[in-house]
Amino acid sequence: MSVAGKARKITTNTLQEMKDAGEKITMLTAYDFSLAKLVDHGGVDVILVGDSASNVMAGNETTVPITLDQMIYHAQCVVRAVDRALIVVDMPFGSYQGNSKLALESAIRIMKESGGHSVKLEGGAEIVDSVKRILTAGIPVMGHLGLTPQSIYKFGTYTVRAREEEEAEKLIADAKMLEEAGCFALVLEKIPAGLATKVSQAISIPTIGIGAGAGVDGQVLVLHDMLGITMDFSPRFLRRYLNLSEQIEGAVSEYVDDVRSGEFPNESEQY
Fold it and tell me: How many domains does the chain have?
């Protein structure tokens, strides 16, 4: 029996209980029905329908181009597959920044049209009004601090964030502000491990790290990266558990050879 078949459904409250008990939280991205089903059956606690779909599904250089309609589509595909995991849907660039009314409208669309369980927003003090407004509708919100890919054109680089004291202090203040606003959890991306540990100890809600060391309450990776489907991205924090790029290319090449040689289909593969 799969893990999903044996375990209870994960909720935002479950994640809080896990942090309180010192139990690590697992999170992976998914964007389609077939892989989301496998991830859920594998026992992952949280599935993030990430705006990284802009990169790994659509081939864009950044996460900026993906639209709200596209995020809803990917979320719909994932929701149909999942029985156990908590589903978090990224709110894409332009759907919440600087306009809390638009943020609420966007979050409501995601929840109503996709069936997702919660939304995730990037940023701290500058987006806290949007967080509060979304929460007034009863929609759970996950925060995201550190490296915020939607702001790539502002920072101009994907290097580690908050190495300097001033930025580190702002990150801690933003984390506390998001907790106070009502976020149920917080992603910390590509920040020094010591700072991530400090943030995790300073707030009571769960922290989930990507490139943030082991002192956080959980970890997240992009599925296509950890499975070795995408091979042109190799940051220090990424551990590849498979090399599917090589295996899939090999299988396709073998199929092409078999068709061209007449080996496929053979007599047992015909009616």
Answer: 2
Domain that holds residue 19: 3-240
pLDDT at 9 exceeding the cut of 80: yes
**209 and 252 fall within a common domain:** no
pLDDT tens digits along 222-257: 999 999 999 988 899 999 999 999 999 999 999 999
Peptide bond into 265 cis (omega under 30): yes
CA distance 207 to 187: 6
Per the structure block, which two tokens stand in for 269?
């593969």
CATH of the domain at 138: 3.20.20.60
Give the DSSP letter string of 22-48.
TPPEEEEE--SHHHHHHHHHTT-SEEE
Catalytic residue list: 189
Same domain, 114 and 171: yes
pTM (two decimals): 0.94
- Partners of residue 186 on adjacent β-strands: 143, 207
Task: Give yes or no: residues 118 and 183 share one domain.
Answer: yes
Q: How many CA atoms lie within 13 A of 232 on its CB side?
A: 4
In this structure, the answer to whether residues 145 and 213 fall within a common structural domain is yes
Query: Tens digits of per-residue pLDDT, 24-35?
Result: 999 999 999 999
Query: Same domain, yes or no, for 221 and 252?
Result: no
How many percent of the chain have pLDDT more than 90?
88
